[in-house]
Design a protein that fits this description.
- The chain has about 450 residues and is of the alpha/beta class.
- It has 3 domains: about 10-160, 3-Layer(aba) Sandwich (Rossmann fold); about 165-300, Rossmann fold; about 305-430, 3-Layer(aba) Sandwich (Rossmann fold).
- Helix content is about 45%, strand content about 15%.
- The protein is built from 18 helices and 17 strands.
- Helix 1 crosses helix 7, helix 2 (about 25-35) crosses helix 3 and helix 8 runs antiparallel to helix 9 (about 185-195).
- The longest helix has 22 residues, at about 40-60.
- The structure holds NADP nicotinamide-adenine-dinucleotide phosphate.
- NADP nicotinamide-adenine-dinucleotide phosphate (NAP) binds near residues 264, 324, 346 and 380.
């Protein structure tokens, strides 16, 4: 059980353990037992950092057997805690509205975590940790207007039966029959949804696009699920209509979607929230997290473009293309203080994107006038089965760095051409690795090392 203080983790956990005839563990109590001091005393004498260190040790040493565990409210902030807790386990997030939490905390005071008055502290911390809670958990139960016994029963029922009705599963199968899913992957879905011995707790995720059969995300994510012992399956949601994909995803209680061509902008009206920091400013979403009845959109593409370019801060850059990925790339390049010119087949689209980020703009032919240090390709040119480079040999020179965001094939015509000319090259695989790591963190709260992702890419 995870969730903010005052959502009922300990009380509900105790009732569940009793009904399921399992041991009950409260990590806060374990910390007090281990240190021989109360939590307020640890906070007061040694500070939150020391408390978090003991908490980390306690989480790592939890027994690997059937047991009900209630965790401290801040446990989910540390990705290594989430990795340990998630291994072969189901995490249930308990939520409650702010009035309920305030009332419960007034009855049973806990040490303050900020200098703010109680209600403001609750609002501030709930907001700050919400994304961590959503990522760390598999199921969500609202405990605001219910008794401990009823809430415990709801958690037990969810953990026994999952969340999908027969009707929802039938609708799901009808949808997947219309997509171009490879036969073995379709068979996996049939087993998940219709086999008598199906595991009702296996949850679905996927890549949403049209087309999206080229995506390497299913192979990567399914390998990550095995590596981190997560009871999830990742597949292809291929359909010409994003509203149909979102309808099915909500109905199948999908945990998350990666969004690809051509839906990165079109998906926004179908979301309950868009991350205000980056996705809103970019105007494109490539990651949707479903949690507690909400669909929240994020953009991790821009981080995938930014990370391999940090040493080129302040460079003169040309960005080819003005679509969804180009928007994230423009955000990343301007974030690195680069002087950016956007060149596109349809100049009007370049002009619109350029205005959004304060860049120059033009047509692909204008590259000769600019003499950039960096060229970033955000068009699909060179993506299998296409075998064209967006540039001719005389538009490149060996002083340039060339970053092709296309990653299928790993060595695109542009990358081969740039290497022949002597340019420094960065392949689309580098972007894929970084954006996938960030997505996995948003979906599950686990920090995967880049090298591990690289080894897992098919
Ligand atoms: P998009 O929204 O469809 O935009 C495509 C852009 O490319 C548009 O500006 C379009 O110009 C231009 N374009 C399309 N066909 C062209 C052609 N034949 N000649 C010249 N320009 C052309 O696509 P997107 O979502 O931005 O994705 C772009 C590429 O990024 C994908 O193909 C994919 O390979 C790559 N990608 C890589 C990663 C990664 O992790 N490495 C992740 C996602 C995507 P108009 O404005 O004239 O239509």
């Amino acid at each position: 059980m995870c969730g903010f203080r005052g959502t009922g983790k300990t009380e509900i956990g105790k009732v569940m353990a009793e009904r399921l005839h399992l041991p009950f563990i409260d990590t806060d109590q374990l910390i007090e037992f281990r240190t021989g001091r109360s939590i307020p005393t640890i906070f007061h004498e040694e500070g939150e950092e020391r408390f978090r260190a003991v908490e980390r040790d306690v989480i790592a040493a939890l027994p690997k057997k059937d047991v009900v565990v209630s965790t401290g409210g801040g446990v989910v902030i540390d990705p290594s805690n989430v990795e340990h807790l998630r291994k072969d386990s189901m995490l249930v997030l308990l939520v409650a509205d702010i009035d309920t939490i305030e009332q419960r905390l007034l009855r049973k005071p806990r040490p303050p975590l900020t200098g703010l008055p109680l209600r403001e502290e609750i609002a501030e911390l709930m907001d700050r940790r919400r994304q961590n809670y959503y990522a760390a958990s598999d199921f969500c139960i609202d405990t605001s207007e219910t008794t401990v016994e009823v809430a415990a029963e709801r958690v037990i029922r969810t953990l026994q039966d999952g969340t999908l009705t027969i009707k929802q599963r039938e609708t799901g199968m009808a949808f997947f029959k219309t997509g171009r899913i490879p036969a073995p992957a379709f068979h996996t879905l049939e087993t998940m949804f219709t086999a008598p011995a199906r595991d009702p707790l296996t949850r679905l995720m996927g890549v949403a696009g049209y087309p999206c059969a080229h995506s390497k995300s299913p192979a990567l994510f399914n390998t990550l699920f095995t590596r981190y012992s997560l009871n999830y399956h990742y597949t292809w949601f291929e359909d010409p209509e994003i509203d149909e994909i979102m309808r099915i995803a909500r109905s199948l209680d999908v945990k998350g979607l990666s969004i690809t061509i051509p839906f990165k902008q079109d998906v926004i009206p179908h979301l309950d929230e868009v991350d205000e920091h980056d996705a809103r400013q970019i105007g494109a979403v490539n990651t949707v997290v479903f949690a507690c009845g909400s669909a929240i959109g994020y953009n991790t593409d821009w981080l995938g473009v930014r990370k391999p370019l940090v040493t080129l801060k302040g460079a003169t850059a040309v960005l080819l293309g003005a679509g969804g990925v180009a928007a994230g790339a423009a955000y990343a390049l301007t974030d690195l203080d680069m002087k950016v010119t956007i060149l596109n087949r349809t100049p009007k689209n370049a002009e619109v994107l350029a205005a959004q980020f304060g860049c120059g703009w033009g047509t692909l032919e204008d590259i000769g006038k600019i003499k950039p240090d960096l060229v970033v390709n955000a068009t699909p040119l060179g993506m299998h089965p296409d075998d064209h480079s967006p540039l001719s040999d005389d538009q490149l020179n060996k002083e340039m760095t060339v970053f092709d965001l296309v990653y299928t094939p790993p060595e695109t015509p542009l990358i081969k051409q740039a290497r022949r000319i002597g340019c420094r090259t960065i392949t689309g695989t580098e972007m894929f690795i970084e954006q996938a790591r960030e997505q996995f963190y948003l979906f599950f709260g686990i920090d995967v090392p880049a090298e591990q992702v690289r080894e897992m890419i098919p």
